[in-house]
Amino acid sequence: MKFFIDTANLSDIQEAYDLGVLDGVTTNPSLMAKEGIAGHDKVMAHYKAICNIVDDNVSAEVIATDFDGIIKEGKELAKIDDKIVVKVPMIKDGVKAIKYFTSEGIRTNCTLVFSSGQALLAAKAGASYVSPFIGRLDDVGSDGLQLIQDIVDIYDNYGYITEVLAASVRHTMHLIQCAEIGADVVTCPLNVITSLLNHPLTDKGLAQFLADHKKANG
Ligand code: E4P
């Protein structure tokens, strides 16, 4: 399973990359705004800075919601770096744009996906990634993980190459259950990745090993 970090914060991206387990980055307009990145040139420069840290897979989201606007923006984003994946919302013009980008060899991430039907459309349009938002579904009393399972099953039935990118991941159990289901990618904040390190028996065991070593060696 690929690990993507869901942030536009450069130091979090660098920390996850330095851990040696990072496969990519997802951003969205809210995450960019959270870092205070505003204005065309600053946004473009920030995406380039992210690309300079990681090896591949930097999702950069379009703001336009009409076909021509999505194509114009997506092409400009794709020109920043070969690592860019154009993130397109699950709307009618977005699906048409994904089909167009696919024919042009531009990778896409279809975002804001909340149903199997939407995921089916994204795959048929040729999206490289589909992003079902599991945390936001859980927030409204739906089962986000069940949606991941359903999409994995549907894609397996037909051999779609679109990768299932579990998004809106809030905690380690989300991540682990996505891995059990067979999601291709999980994107989450840095703390979810680093929380995987923690186990009290690891801490206890290490303290014991170090104490025994000290006793024997002085
Ligand atoms: C991923 O591509 C999305 O931008 C992100 O996972 C949304 O997460 P949130 O529901 O925590 O905002």
Indicate the overall shape.
globular
In the CATH hierarchy, what is the architecture at level 2? Alpha-Beta Barrel
Number of helices: 11
CATH first level: Alpha Beta
Number of strands: 8
- Give the strand line-up of the largest sheet: 1-2-3-4-5-6-7-8
Biggest sheet features: 8 strands, parallel, barrel
How many angstroms separate the termini?
44 Å
Describe, in short, the structure shown.
By secondary structure, the chain is of the alpha/beta class.
Which descriptors would you attach to this protein?
alpha/beta, 218 residues, 8 strands, TIM Barrel, binds erythose-4-phosphate
Q: Would you give an account of this structure?
A:
With 218 residues, the chain is an alpha/beta fold. The chain starts with a strand and ends with a helix. An 8-stranded parallel β-barrel has the order 1-2-3-4-5-6-7-8, surrounded by 7 helices. Helix content is 56%, strand content 17%. Strand 4 (84-89), helix 5 and strand 5 form a beta-alpha-beta unit. It is globular. The mean pLDDT is 98. Bound molecules: erythose-4-phosphate. Residues 6, 26, 28, 111, 131, 133, 135-136, 167-168, 187 line the site of erythose-4-phosphate.
Chart the SSEs and their pairings:
Elements: E1 2-6, H1 10-19, E2 24-26, H2 29-34, H3 40-53, E3 58-61, H4 67-80, E4 84-89, H5 92-103, E5 108-113, H6 116-125, E6 129-132, H7 134-139, H8 144-158, E7 163-166, H9 172-181, E8 185-188, H10 190-195, H11 200-217
Parallel strand pairs: 1-2, 1-8, 2-3, 3-4, 4-5, 5-6, 6-7, 7-8
Helix pairs in contact: 4-5, 5-6, 6-8, 8-9
